[in-house]
């Protein structure tokens, strides 16, 4: 448990009374978390702060054990049972507002709750914001997430592709395999803190925990640091990883590759890699969701008489039948020849016909067309029949 908790009113944070039921806590949190979520308020640091505060309040109050601890600690605090100078002499604490150390309520509440606050909340917030701030626990820190981008051709994006991505990022040191110790040696457990990374000091009835100075909170001591990484266990390396981009990605889509991000310090899990995909335009195809679109140039006579035209698809060509009497601008659907869908199947190919008009005709064709125009009129065709502008 963190001393800062005592200064915070988690109930007020969630806008509920201190007698609220677990159900009411859950409800209040859900609503606030929805409104304040960083995805919904990009760049709004105030909302982010509030979101963190609300998450922290919920993490404590939603856990009946932690809530009990919190309530009891606050009761003690409010009654002046501790904190009001009782242990100030000689200690790090010099008065109101300076609650920066962690302390261990386990000492107060009989040990059962020792360490109850450890990690849980940090993990929640760490996961969301990935700030990697200084942690005072001995738990190895997960590597950071890494962002990168790649540009794919239109057809690659539609069909899926395996691409190499070059990235420079901290990786586990190849010399010491991330341990930080010179090959042939290994880190030893810090004798000062027994590998916990924290030192407990007792002052009167209260126990305080601080990061261990000897091992800087890591819990282990490296006598012979690896020369290649100077004991950190990480090296900057340029690596090329091969990433399989699934079929059907869209321009601007962000893909998460678990465990491909920055290496964790000293054997901690790696972060994730996020790849933002840009998709370049294609000369032939457009895209509408899972459907591929294309514009097919046709002549007037092809529309009138009907024809079959060979058109490209993502895989090979297909013959598209243009029925006699097809109107200009009509869209013909070729089922299943669009963009592959997740989980099987594919969208359709949508072929829109567009009349191409010859800029000029030779004498023979012009003569034939004139005769055709007369025949058309004689046949009773009026292009503006039923037209509102007539
Ligand atoms: Zn090394
Ligand atoms: Zn230590």
UniProtKB/TrEMBL annotation:
It is found in: Cytoplasm. Zn(2+) 2 binds at residues 190, 193, 212, 215. Gene3D superfamilies: DnaJ domain (1.10.287.110), Heat shock protein DnaJ, cysteine-rich domain (2.10.230.10), Urease metallochaperone UreE, N-terminal domain (2.60.260.20). Homodimer. Residues 160-238 form the CR-type domain. This is Chaperone protein DnaJ. Participates actively in the response to hyperosmotic and heat shock by preventing the aggregation of stress-denatured proteins and by disaggregating proteins, also in an autonomous, DnaK-independent fashion. Unfolded proteins bind initially to DnaJ; upon interaction with the DnaJ-bound protein, DnaK hydrolyzes its bound ATP, resulting in the formation of a stable complex. GrpE releases ADP from DnaK; ATP binding to DnaK triggers the release of the substrate protein, thus completing the reaction cycle.
């Amino acid at each position: 448990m963190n001393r800062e908790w005592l200064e915070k009113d988690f109930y007020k944070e969630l806008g509920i009374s201190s007698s609220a039921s677990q159900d009411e806590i859950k409800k209040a949190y859900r609503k606030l978390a929805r409104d304040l979520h960083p995805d919904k308020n990009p760049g709004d640091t105030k909302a982010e702060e509030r979101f963190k505060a609300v998450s922290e309040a919920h993490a404590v109050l939603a856990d009946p054990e932690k809530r009990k601890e919190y309530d009891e600690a606050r009761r003690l605090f409010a009654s002046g049972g501790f904190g009001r100078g009782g242990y100030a002499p000689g200690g790090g604490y010099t008065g109101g507002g300076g609650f920066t150390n962690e302390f261990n309520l386990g000492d107060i509440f009989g040990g059962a709750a020792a360490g109850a606050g450890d990690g849980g909340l940090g993990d929640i917030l760490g996961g969301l914001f990935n700030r990697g701030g200084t942690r005072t626990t001995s738990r190895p820190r997960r590597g950071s997430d890494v962002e990168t981008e790649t540009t794919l051709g239109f057809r690659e994006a539609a069909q899926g592709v395996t691409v190499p991505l070059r990235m420079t990022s901290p990786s586990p040191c190849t010399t010491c395999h991330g341990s930080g110790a010179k090959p042939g040696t290994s880190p030893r457990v810090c004798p000062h803190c027994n590998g916990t990374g924290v030192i407990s000091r007792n002052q009167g009835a209260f126990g305080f925990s601080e990061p261990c100075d000897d091992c800087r909170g890591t819990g282990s001591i490296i006598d012979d640091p690896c020369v290649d990484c100077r004991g950190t266990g990480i090296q900057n390396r340029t690596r090329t990883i091969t990433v399989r981009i699934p079929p059907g990605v869209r321009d601007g889509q962000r893909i998460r590759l678990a465990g491909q991000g920055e290496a964790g310090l000293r054997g901690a899990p790696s972060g994730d890699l996020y790849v933002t995909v840009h998709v370049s335009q294609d000369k032939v195809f457009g895209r509408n969701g899972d459907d591929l679109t294309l514009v097919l140039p046709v002549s007037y006579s092809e529309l009138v008489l009907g024809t079959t035209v060979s058109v490209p698809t993502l895989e090979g060509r297909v013959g598209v039948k243009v029925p006699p009497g097809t109107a200009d601008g009509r869209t013909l659907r070729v089922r299943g020849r669009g963009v592959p869908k997740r989980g099987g199947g594919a969208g359709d190919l949508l072929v829109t016909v567009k009349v191409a008009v010859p800029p000029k005709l030779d004498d023979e064709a012009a003569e034939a067309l004139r005769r055709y125009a007369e025949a058309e009129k004689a046949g009773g065709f009026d292009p503006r029949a039923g037209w509102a502008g007539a």
